[in-house]
Specification:
alpha+beta, Alpha-Beta Plaits, 6-stranded antiparallel β-sheet
């Protein structure tokens, strides 16, 4: 196996599989694109991104059970049995293999806050002739807010022959749309904000047509969905804007990840993508430290006493430096310092009395040239990871001071940095860090609403201010993100009839109140649809320039950028 072609996280999964067999892979199901077989006679498969030359012919890989979803492009997606990773890595055309990772799901007074009624009254724009693509948990096609406007629905979770972009899932049109259900309700709510047609809780672009992708939230499948929506829109001769209110933190936070690369490659004139900044503004998921030349630094992180099955640390630092890595458990047991292993398998197992620790320290990542090391912690069977304060220890063996950025990942979203290593920045991960994406922060326009039982509900947010949960930028390479802020709390929009919401969140039988950058993003998506109706050739740079010129941070000079606000709250009145 050509270990240098596999990313650190994928190497961990392979090592666990080799040591422990199929049961070990289930611990990687969420983070490493592991697809459990539907039959015991079929092999467990992994969903990966593969990097190759744009015109590389990979058809010969079929003999190893490897299903490549695209025939061209530098970044493609593929299914393969775990045992075929060896053959894939040995293929001369393959440059890099990275796992798919499962991401997380991220209007009454809202339009007034952004002066939307004035803009629409002045221009008469409704989104007619524009396609809005929603990649999310699906949609309730029976909801009257979308009647007659859903052109196609690719449900990636259903059995079926798939589409040109991937031979999986089922593509549905009327009258079969109702075969797909939105049991989460997230996608229906998002679609309602962007394009719902309702007299009271109408969306921004109520005459736009909809292309819906119900995704299993694997980022490789999101990449296929982006390609699918833009391909169909092109065949229909219409401009399109795609909404992705989904994100994660297993990437470099600089736009060099696979999904961001696909988005940057697919966007262009009349092809825009809007992404959520994220909802980790209050969460200490990011740690940062500067390690002086020849010195050692520790970064503390807290694992709760609750049942955390596995913990990962995703760490990045400059290509010009070299760090050695060690882990200290709450009981004081430590692993040896592990150097960069540029040749051979960089994954090393460390058995502590109270934990199993694996550290992956490869050479620089070809995507950005920087170093990425990965730490995996598991409890000794059958125990979960030990609760308490752990410490990541790093020693700088290079000739210069080195900044290290680390993000916590776990199976319960409850592991956080603590102490001096906490850094309230760099919390915008893929795909919000894509260079071409319009990345949206959330602004609070409403903190109270009346639920279906006529009870007034009040949220603990500050009104008319940036939402405290909205994730902060900039990116790790200092690129400016988010781009703009839009209303994201509390937003009333379409309720899926198949979702099970608490009655305290429902406003009536058709609408529900939610908050998040997931809600702010479709506001901008709908707005971009209006702009594309006016000028179908707008490209991402032109759209961002329009938003930047018509956004501002209260009390700050025009054009001021802030890592929480972006360029500020959108004001559509003079767009």
């Amino acid at each position: 196996m050509r270990h240098e072609k596999l990313s650190p996280g994928l190497l961990l999964a392979v090592k666990d599989y080799q040591n422990e067999g199929l049961p070990a892979l289930m611990t990687h199901k969420r983070s490493l694109g592991i697809i459990a077989p539907k039959s015991i006679v079929k092999p467990t498969k992994s969903l990966v991104f593969i990097y190759c030359d744009d015109d590389a012919d990979l058809s010969n890989l079929e003999q190893y059970g490897i299903e490549v979803n695209q025939n061209s492009g530098h970044v493609r997606t593929a299914f393969l049995p775990i045992d075929s990773l060896d053959a894939l890595s040995e293929a001369p055309a393959i440059q890099r293999i990275k796992p798919s990772r499962k991401l997380k799901l991220r209007m009454d007074v809202a339009p007034q806050a952004a002066k939307l009624p004035e803009f629409k009254n002045k221009t008469g724009l409704t989104g007619k002739g524009v396609i809005i693509g929603i990649i999310d948990s699906g949609i309730d096609p029976k909801h009257p807010a979308f009647a007659g406007r859903i052109l196609r629905l690719w449900d990636q979770t259903l059995p079926g022959p798939g589409v040109k972009e991937g031979a999986y899932g089922a593509e549905l049109t009327e009258p079969l749309l109702t075969v797909s259900q939105d049991t989460e309700g997230h996608g229906t709510h998002v679609a309602g904000i962007a394009s719902g047609a309702d007299a009271t809780y109408g969306g921004v672009a109520p005459d736009a047509e909809l292309l819906i992708v119900k995704s299993d939230l694997q980022d490789a499948h999101l990449a296929d969905a982006v390609r699918y929506i833009f391909r169909v829109a092109g065949e229909l001769g219409q401009p399109a804007v795609i909404n992705i209110s989904i994100g994660g933190h297993a990437d470099a936070h600089d736009g060099s990840d696979s999904l961001s690369k696909v988005i940057d490659a697919e966007t262009g004139p009349g092809r825009i993508v809007c992404c959520a900044a994220g909802n980790e503004g209050n969460d200490n998921i990011h740690g940062q430290t500067t390690v002086a030349c020849g010195k050692m630094r520790g970064m503390r992180f807290n694992v709760p006493l609750s049942q955390v099955g596995i913990v990962w640390l995703n760490a990045w630092y400059s290509k010009d430096s070299e760090l050695e890595v060690s882990v200290r458990s709450p009981n004081g047991f430590v692993t040896p310092f592990q150097k960069i292993i540029a040749n051979g398998n960089p994954t090393v197992d460390h058995q502590l009395p109270d934990a199993k620790v694996q550290i992956v320290t490869p050479g620089p990542d070809p995507a950005n040239g920087d170093h990425n090391f990965f730490v995996q912690i598991r409890g000794n069977d059958p125990s979960p990871v030990m609760g308490g304060i752990w410490q990541l220890r790093v020693r700088n063996t290079s000739s210069q001071d080195t900044r290290l950025d680390v993000w916590t990942l776990d199976d319960t979203s409850s592991v956080f940095f603590t102490g001096s290593s906490v850094k309230d920045t760099l919390k915008i991960g893929a795909p919000g860090c894509a260079q071409s994406a319009v990345t949206v922060a959330a602004y609070t326009t409403k903190t109270k609403y009346t639920d279906i039982d006529n009870q007034q509900r009040e949220m603990g947010l500050e009104c008319n201010c940036i939402s405290e949960f909205s994730s902060e930028g900039p990116l790790r390479n200092d690129a400016q993100k988010p781009d703009v802020a839009a209303p994201g709390a509390m937003i009333v929009s379409a309720l899926s009839s198949n979702a099970n919401y608490d009655r305290s969140m429902t406003v009536n039988s058709k609408f529900v109140a939610m908050a998040g950058t997931s809600m702010a993003t479709p506001f901008i998506t709908g707005l971009v649809a209006l702009l594309l109706q006016r000028d179908r050739n707008l490209d991402p740079q032109a759209v961002k320039e329009l938003l930047r010129k018509n956004s501002s941070i209260p009390g700050k000079p025009a054009g001021t950028f802030d890592h929480k606000w972006g360029y500020g709250l959108i004001n559509t009145e003079n767009l």
